Amino acid sequence: MNNIHPTAIIDPSAKLDPSVKVGPYTVIREDVVVGAGTVIGAHAVLEFVHMGKDNIISDASYIGVAPQDLKYAGEKTLLVMGDRNKVREGATLNRGTAAFGETKIGNDCLFMTCSHVAHDCQLGNQVILANCVALAGHVEVGDGCVFGGFVGVHQYVKIGRFCMLGAGSMVAKDVPSFCNAQGDRATLRGLNLVGMRRAGLHRDSVSAIREAYRTLFLSGRPWDEALAEVRASGVTEVQDMVRMIDGSKRGITRPATGVQAEEEVTL
């Protein structure tokens, strides 16, 4: 227990691996599980969170705290985190509500200063939220997404894999996988070619995604006709885009103008 500062307050029910380090004046309340190698800074507050190993929880961050939802009536819910996540100063990650029961965060994510993940959100792996990004309740985010500073995302919006959301964007509709979006309200600005390249997608897959994007958003063809053509593709990543579109309840983010989108997608 030498890793725990004497001023820290830890509930007897908390389960901390012996290697966990806890800084001064941190409060760890009930139903907390922390995996090996995790470092928790000063003045942090943790409750109702189960996290894996090697996470870094910075000073004055709030992990697993109660949802900011008027319907929340104190029911027991959780925040579940994976491994190697970094939560910077002042970030707030809320636990779930009775609607879903859990807020889920994958592995290797970064939550910069003052970012916020609301109740019942579902985040994949390697997601980056820059400063002051705010995800409302029930937002779903795929692997490898990057949110620029001050992005706001509406409740129940789905963000596909490897999307890039430009700084200051207000996102009110679902964003298909592999796309860039920006603006208030956000519109598509082409494909996240840099993100796909970093993810190691094969050149043929990238070409198929570009063709699908053009067919759906730039061809000017009737939507049902364009979607039927794209749906026939045998490329896994294209089918990822199709599943998002088929499952959308809030509607799909689209380009503001075909000319602008064409310039972006051909970079």
**Beta strand count:** 27
Largest sheet: 10 strands, mixed
What strand line-up does the widest sheet have?
Answer: 3-6-9-12-15-18-21-24-26-27
From the alpha-carbon coordinates, what is the Rg to the nearest angstrom?
20 Å
- Measure the end-to-end span: 54 Å
Q: Which residues sit in consecutive blocks of at least 5 with pLDDT less than 50?
A: 259-267
Q: What overall geometry do the principal axes of the alpha carbons give?
A: elongated
Helix content: 10-25%
Describe this structure in words.
With 267 residues, the protein is of the alpha/beta class. Helices cover 19% and strands 25% of the residues. It has five helices and 27 strands. It has helices spanning 193-199, 203-218, 223-231, 236-246, 258-265, and strands spanning 9-10, 15-16, 21-22, 27-28, 32-34, 39-40, 45-46, 49-51, 56-57, 62-65, 78-81, 86-87, 92-94, 102-105, 110-111, 116-117, 122-123, 128-129, 134-135, 140-141, 146-147, 152-153, 158-159, 164-165, 170-171, 179-182, 187-191. It has a ten-stranded mixed beta sheet. A hairpin with a 4-residue loop joins strand 26 and strand 27 (187-191). It is elongated, with a radius of gyration of 20 Å. Residues 259-267 have low confidence and may be disordered.
